[in-house]
Amino acid sequence: MSTDTTSPATTPVSVIGLGMMGTALAEAFLGQGHPTTVWNRSPQKAEQLVTRGATGADTVGAALTAGPLVVVCLSTDEAVHEVLDPEVENLKDRVLVNLTSSTPEEARATAAWAERHGITYLDGAIMATPPLVGQPQALIFYGGSAPAFEDHQETLRVLGGAATYLGDDTGLPSLYDVALLGILWSTVAGNIQALALLGTEGVTAEAFLPYATAWLNHVAVPYLPRLAEEVDRQDYATDVSTLNVNKEAIAHLVSASRSQGVSPDLVLPFQALIERRVARGHGSDSLSSLIEELRKPSA
Asked: Which one of 122, 126, 137, 240 is at 20 to 30 Å from 299 when CA atoms are compared?
């Protein structure tokens, strides 16, 4: 790994890939005064950044060798290898930070590729939209070389103040990524179902919003610590809300949706999971016990 002695405040960086997210990354570095070299397959995407002070590289190799820290943000894992595989020699003595969305398996395979070629590697997952990049609350997970993260964490925090190192397993950032996205999608799905149902009676999304927000803040979010404790202890006893109670409640939701002419497709899988767990004799357990149906789906 490079023993670069440049001050973190002035560390030169290279950004490979200038889609919406890559552009936001480059803008964050520029905004904090880092000498920033950029490259994209379509050179015109670099023009606006160059007018703001970035250096536009004519080739990938020129971008990779411009500084000690290389940040890659491309569309797919396949694109990463298409761009970088021919350039392994230009990545020696540099730190490669791959912020391309991928699966844990892909991240670990890329880490193995980097190790074979003597490339110091960090894999990351950006848990923010482009407008949030560079903000103190922007969360980015990292995994891989601990010395590399330690050496460059101040520079990487320019991209997100909540930068978090998860350890040397490069698959963990993407695993955290999809786990959090699962929470997002489930929340959005539930809200969409609610709005479709209420809309049949002329209730607007804006009118319902205060109640949805309050429900999440005062009921759903406070339940998460208890759910975490129950799952870690595998103790699902409850005196609050059993699966038997929830089996009846979700049946009401499905029935009400159908009677109002709204498809219940978004909630049917969750209903099936509850019914299966109850049928196996766990009706007195809490909702958290549904994790056992995911851990042992064929048991």
From this structure: 240
Q: For residue 184, what are its two tokens?
A: 């997002």
63/99 Cα distance (integer angstroms):
17
- Cβ atoms 156, 30 nearer than 8 A: no
Average pLDDT, the chain: 95
- Residue indicated by tokens 């995911």: 294
Q: How far apart are CA 257 and CA 264, in angstroms?
A: 6
Name the residue among 2, 19, 20 with its Cα closest to residue 11: 2
Q: How many whole angstroms separate alpha carbon 287 and alpha carbon 299? A: 18
- Residue identified by tokens 């930070």 is 97
Q: Are residues 12 and 155 in the same domain?
A: yes
User: Residues 54-63: pLDDT tens digits?
Assistant: 999 999 999 9
If asked whether residues 109 and 206 sit together in one domain, one would say no
- pLDDT score recorded for residue 8: 61
List the domain range (segments joined by +) for residue 147.
Answer: 8-168
Residues 164 and 19 in one domain: yes
Residue found under tokens 């925090």: 157
CATH number, position 152: 3.40.50.720
Instruction: Say if pTM beats, i.e. exceeds, 0.85.
Output: yes
Residue 155 lies in a domain: yes
Report the domain count for the chain. Answer: 2
Residue 3 has pLDDT above 90, yes or no: no
Distances (CA, A) of 270 to 150, 152, 181, 246: 42, 43, 17, 11
